[in-house]
TrEMBL record:
The keyword Metal-binding applies. GO terms for molecular function: metalloexopeptidase activity; zinc ion binding. This is JAB domain-containing protein. SUPFAM superfamilies: JAB1/MPN domain. Residues 10-129 form the JAB domain. It comes from the Bacteria. Keywords: Hydrolase, Metal-binding, Metalloprotease, Protease, Zinc. InterPro entries: JAB_dom_prok, VirAsm_ModProt. Gene3D superfamilies: Cytidine Deaminase, domain 2. PANTHER family: CYSO-CYSTEINE PEPTIDASE (PTHR34858). It holds the Pfam family Prok-JAB. It comes from Enhygromyxa salina. Signal peptide: none annotated.
Length: 155
Protein backbone atom coordinates (compact mmCIF):
# COMPACT_ATOMS: atom_id res chain seq x y z
CA UNK A 1 0.00 0.00 0.00
CA UNK A 2 2.79 2.43 0.82
CA UNK A 3 4.77 1.50 -2.27
CA UNK A 4 6.98 -0.89 -0.31
CA UNK A 5 6.85 -4.52 -1.26
CA UNK A 6 5.73 -7.21 1.16
CA UNK A 7 8.56 -8.64 3.26
CA UNK A 8 9.92 -11.93 1.96
CA UNK A 9 9.22 -15.00 4.08
CA UNK A 10 11.49 -17.91 3.22
CA UNK A 11 9.64 -21.26 3.00
CA UNK A 12 11.51 -22.72 5.99
CA UNK A 13 10.58 -19.70 8.13
CA UNK A 14 6.91 -19.95 7.17
CA UNK A 15 7.02 -23.66 8.03
CA UNK A 16 8.57 -22.84 11.43
CA UNK A 17 5.77 -20.33 12.09
CA UNK A 18 3.20 -22.97 11.12
CA UNK A 19 4.85 -25.52 13.43
CA UNK A 20 4.79 -22.97 16.25
CA UNK A 21 1.05 -22.41 15.66
CA UNK A 22 0.40 -26.17 15.77
CA UNK A 23 2.50 -26.59 18.93
CA UNK A 24 0.53 -23.90 20.79
CA UNK A 25 -2.90 -24.96 19.49
CA UNK A 26 -5.61 -24.44 20.77
CA UNK A 27 -3.97 -21.26 22.09
CA UNK A 28 -2.61 -18.46 19.95
CA UNK A 29 1.09 -18.46 19.18
CA UNK A 30 3.06 -15.27 18.70
CA UNK A 31 6.43 -14.04 17.56
CA UNK A 32 8.12 -11.76 15.10
CA UNK A 33 10.58 -11.58 12.24
CA UNK A 34 13.74 -9.50 12.28
CA UNK A 35 14.92 -8.43 8.83
CA UNK A 36 13.65 -9.81 5.54
CA UNK A 37 14.37 -12.46 2.95
CA UNK A 38 17.18 -14.99 3.39
CA UNK A 39 18.78 -12.87 6.13
CA UNK A 40 15.60 -12.81 8.25
CA UNK A 41 15.58 -14.21 11.78
CA UNK A 42 12.51 -15.75 13.39
CA UNK A 43 11.92 -14.88 17.04
CA UNK A 44 9.50 -17.40 18.56
CA UNK A 45 7.86 -15.93 21.65
CA UNK A 46 5.95 -17.40 24.57
CA UNK A 47 2.40 -16.11 24.69
CA UNK A 48 2.13 -14.52 28.14
CA UNK A 49 -1.60 -13.75 27.84
CA UNK A 50 -2.71 -16.39 30.37
CA UNK A 51 -0.26 -15.03 32.98
CA UNK A 52 -1.54 -11.47 32.51
CA UNK A 53 -5.15 -12.70 32.59
CA UNK A 54 -4.55 -14.62 35.85
CA UNK A 55 -3.03 -11.57 37.56
CA UNK A 56 -5.44 -8.93 36.21
CA UNK A 57 -8.52 -10.39 34.48
CA UNK A 58 -10.21 -7.00 34.38
CA UNK A 59 -7.44 -5.41 32.29
CA UNK A 60 -6.76 -8.67 30.41
CA UNK A 61 -10.19 -10.31 30.00
CA UNK A 62 -9.08 -12.63 27.19
CA UNK A 63 -7.04 -15.81 27.59
CA UNK A 64 -4.34 -17.19 25.29
CA UNK A 65 -7.07 -19.00 23.36
CA UNK A 66 -8.09 -15.65 21.82
CA UNK A 67 -5.25 -13.21 22.46
CA UNK A 68 -1.48 -12.89 22.73
CA UNK A 69 0.95 -10.78 24.71
CA UNK A 70 4.74 -10.75 24.36
CA UNK A 71 6.81 -11.23 27.49
CA UNK A 72 9.11 -8.45 28.69
CA UNK A 73 12.35 -9.84 27.19
CA UNK A 74 10.73 -10.52 23.82
CA UNK A 75 9.14 -7.08 23.75
CA UNK A 76 12.41 -5.41 24.75
CA UNK A 77 14.33 -7.15 21.93
CA UNK A 78 11.53 -6.23 19.52
CA UNK A 79 11.64 -2.55 20.54
CA UNK A 80 15.46 -2.47 20.48
CA UNK A 81 15.43 -3.68 16.87
CA UNK A 82 14.20 -0.27 15.72
CA UNK A 83 17.30 1.38 17.19
CA UNK A 84 19.87 -1.12 15.88
CA UNK A 85 19.27 -3.70 13.16
CA UNK A 86 18.10 -5.97 12.00
CA UNK A 87 14.75 -4.22 12.34
CA UNK A 88 11.52 -6.07 13.14
CA UNK A 89 9.43 -6.34 9.98
CA UNK A 90 6.58 -8.72 10.87
CA UNK A 91 4.64 -9.68 13.99
CA UNK A 92 2.88 -13.02 13.66
CA UNK A 93 0.17 -14.77 15.62
CA UNK A 94 -2.29 -17.57 15.04
CA UNK A 95 -6.07 -17.63 15.05
CA UNK A 96 -7.08 -21.08 16.31
CA UNK A 97 -10.23 -22.39 14.63
CA UNK A 98 -11.51 -18.97 13.45
CA UNK A 99 -9.62 -18.20 10.23
CA UNK A 100 -6.92 -15.77 9.16
CA UNK A 101 -8.30 -12.24 9.32
CA UNK A 102 -7.29 -9.01 10.98
CA UNK A 103 -9.80 -8.74 13.81
CA UNK A 104 -11.14 -5.58 15.40
CA UNK A 105 -8.97 -6.36 18.45
CA UNK A 106 -5.91 -6.88 16.20
CA UNK A 107 -6.62 -3.51 14.57
CA UNK A 108 -7.11 -1.73 17.90
CA UNK A 109 -3.90 -3.15 19.37
CA UNK A 110 -1.83 -2.49 16.24
CA UNK A 111 -3.05 1.10 15.89
CA UNK A 112 -2.41 1.72 19.60
CA UNK A 113 1.13 0.31 19.41
CA UNK A 114 1.97 2.16 16.20
CA UNK A 115 4.82 -0.17 15.30
CA UNK A 116 6.07 0.09 11.67
CA UNK A 117 5.60 -3.62 10.94
CA UNK A 118 3.34 -5.90 8.95
CA UNK A 119 1.18 -8.52 10.66
CA UNK A 120 0.95 -12.19 9.68
CA UNK A 121 -2.16 -14.05 10.87
CA UNK A 122 -2.10 -17.86 10.65
CA UNK A 123 -5.34 -19.84 10.24
CA UNK A 124 -4.71 -22.82 12.54
CA UNK A 125 -7.40 -25.51 12.51
CA UNK A 126 -7.65 -28.81 14.40
CA UNK A 127 -5.87 -30.79 11.67
CA UNK A 128 -4.01 -28.30 9.51
CA UNK A 129 -2.83 -24.79 8.80
CA UNK A 130 -5.27 -23.53 6.16
CA UNK A 131 -3.43 -20.37 5.17
CA UNK A 132 -1.70 -17.26 6.45
CA UNK A 133 -2.44 -13.68 5.49
CA UNK A 134 -0.10 -10.72 5.74
CA UNK A 135 -1.58 -7.32 6.59
CA UNK A 136 -0.21 -3.77 6.42
CA UNK A 137 -1.51 -0.50 7.80
CA UNK A 138 -3.55 1.38 5.22
CA UNK A 139 -1.64 4.58 4.32
CA UNK A 140 -4.51 6.96 5.12
CA UNK A 141 -7.21 4.99 6.95
CA UNK A 142 -7.17 3.53 10.49
CA UNK A 143 -7.31 0.00 9.10
CA UNK A 144 -5.16 -2.83 7.77
CA UNK A 145 -5.26 -4.39 4.33
CA UNK A 146 -4.13 -7.78 3.06
CA UNK A 147 -0.88 -7.56 1.09
CA UNK A 148 0.04 -11.23 0.75
CA UNK A 149 -1.47 -14.70 1.10
CA UNK A 150 0.43 -17.91 1.87
CA UNK A 151 -0.76 -21.46 1.31
CA UNK A 152 -1.30 -23.58 4.37
CA UNK A 153 0.18 -26.99 5.20
CA UNK A 154 -0.85 -30.33 6.66
CA UNK A 155 1.20 -29.83 9.81
Amino acid sequence: MSGESAPQLPAQMLEAIYRHARAEFPNECCGYVLGSGDQAELVVCDNQQDRYHAVDPESYPRTAATAYTFGFKDLRRFNDSFESGPRATIIYHSHPRVGAYFSAEDTRAALSAGWPVDYLVVDCQDDEIREALLFRKHPTEPSFVEIARFEGAKI
